[in-house]
User: Fold this.
Amino acid sequence: MIAADLLRHHLFPDFELLGGSGGLNRELSSVSVIDAPDVDRWMRGGEFLIGSGYIFREDPEGFAPFLRRVEEKGIAALGIKLDRYHHQLPGSMVAESDSLNLPLVAIPLNYRWTDVIEGVQAFLFQEKRRGDQAQEDLGSFWEEGLDLRRLLSGFALRLGLPLVVQSTQLGLNHQFLPDGRIEGADQVQAFLKTPVVQEKGLPRRGQILENLELRNSGVLQWCAVYRFVADTPLTLHLGLSAGEQTPSTRQERMVLRALTLLRAAALEVATLSDRWVVKKEKFFEGLCLEIYNDPEMVRANLEELGVALPRRGCIVVASSSREAEPPRWVPPEAVFSHRLGDQWTGLLPLPDPDGAKRDWGQKAERAGVHLALGGTVQTPLEISRSYQEAKRTSNWLREFSLPPGVYLHEELSLYALLDSLARLPEARGVYRRYWEPLLAEPTGGRRSLPLRELAKALIQTDFNARLCAQNLHLHYNTVRNHLEDLEGLLDLDLSNPHHRLGLILASHIHGSFQKRGGEG
Assistant:
């Protein structure tokens, strides 16, 4: 392996060479991390030396003499993680790397040192295995690539894990199981409807975005999600084994190979796209996933991109009410935005949440779009919290099957709380006390509507009998008589706030039972 291999697209696609291009043919044999100013004492030669520049955070000009010392020990290249302690490296360091012909590489913030070390070690291991077996594997690889479903089924078999793949362009909406079975759209939608209870970001691989989802399908299971950024979405879910929370290097390498095959043309287009746009989207993604935790690094990136954040804003996640289809309309004037699969995420000015609901509501309803709004953002480091709230709201919208429109996190969180009441042990007692008698009520008789319908209308009008009568198109006296029957059947007093609360909770519990196909 030589230093130039560090810049290969499939290995570290977003590494950037800052200087020292004359030394890209240096032999690279291992990786070492900068842990002290005199780390050069322990170098043996051939290392890819990596660090965050912490030891020079107060004296950036100290980089240049350090560079000379480690070059004397014969290291292959030096990599510095940017936006941790240094937004950019001093010009003297870049000039020194050029004069020494020592490759100087910028490492993006989202890389962990284990990602770099494992990537290099895997490359070195593959070099040792090259030969006839590699040629045989390559031929098999291309033959299987002629049949995408067969290829993906082979990936699932090799990994021993289920894959869910969605691509409208390629006609894929399937689940590939390790035993060779290929399931269709119904099983895919059943998987996607399982609630996501936790989400984590993973390092970005070029134009491929990655994150982890903890899904609850009766059993908690982590899934690694890979989304290719393009006009036509491509999403791959990799279900991890029990006890695993992150994919292994081998699993990631195989998944990335599958994605590269499936969207080679889209990757080529993305590689030629506007670098400024890509950098802006990548920075916004890092803010959403809380990769940036240094306000000074955030400020430097905002200035470089020429972006001014609104004094008061929020994160908006837009999705179509039609499954696996990108939204047809999104709010204008987004300061930042990017697409993840069939979802659009943006940071928008939001001086008045009620005004936003009014202004965006009708357009979202006409376009069949759900808009999930997170909490207020007033500083850059609040973007991640607002994003997590918007994502939870978006998941609730899918879970509750609510109509298109605008939904605020604080409003839907109460809805979710009420929906979760049915899971409490005490819920059954409240249900049997305040709602079950309404279901057992015989039909017919002198009343013009069942008492359970009267109870629903009464709750919707906040126990206003006159407004309830208007909504039901009944005479006020008729409703009063029915209310007396309701109090008698349930043995309650509607003027008692505790009895009113019991009836409200029982109504929500009944709705949850119905949705889950259980009692009620």
Observations:
- The chain has 19 helices and 17 strands.
- The longest helix spans residues 497-515.
- The two ends are 66 Å apart (CA to CA).
- Residues 204 and 485 are 63 Å apart (CA to CA).
